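Usage

Read records sequentially. Each one opens with the input sequence:
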Amino acid sequence: MNDIILKVREELIANIDSKTLETGQRFFKEKIDFYGVTIPKVNKIAEQLFKELVNEPKLKIWDYCEQLFQSGNLEESFVASHWSYKFENQFTKEDFYLFERWIKDYINNWASCDTLCNHTVGAFVEKFPEFIKELKNFTSSENRWVKRAAAVTLIIPARKGLFLEHIFEIADLLLLDPDDLVQKGYGWMLKAASQAHQEEVFQYVMKNKGIMPRTSLRYAIEKMPEEMRKRAMES
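and closes with the structure output:
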């Protein structure tokens, strides 16, 4: 095992927070492997240890990230996501297939999914928007995290007003998905899009409210004015 991976694990163990350890599992339906370290502390550890890696080539960092994701541990996945995002200015098209494999093979909870996809994969598709078609392919997966990834990858671009047509298409593809974590994912994507395109998202919700799961609908309209929310929630 590489020294840097050992250091990550030693730092995480040294920073276990008793309250986080006690309460962390309640946020997940599935059994989670986690140390019990607060997210700000995990980010600080990731940032500090990355200073030891600044001269390492990208492919070496990808190898470290792979080892961390492979563990299945929550906080280790956060460190890997933090490190991979550091290379947003060096992303190449080939990196998508590595990110896709991480999602398909290693992601096992919503927090790891969102942390990797919001930042690393989201930055990637901003740089290479032609890969949004791959996100659309994600929607037909049998893996709930792959389907959620299709939506949550576009959260930050959506807030910037980007990719609205693609966002609606992904929402269409996930519209009737029975998995509540997928419903929350695309509802969150629509909510993010509403920050720049409120009227367009409202019209999308109104068009689909008869069949859209209430979970998705509530997420989508959360940032809208009260009058809009009332209209959307009417039977």
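Summary fields computed downstream for this record:
- The longest helix spans residues 110-127.
- The mean pLDDT is 97.
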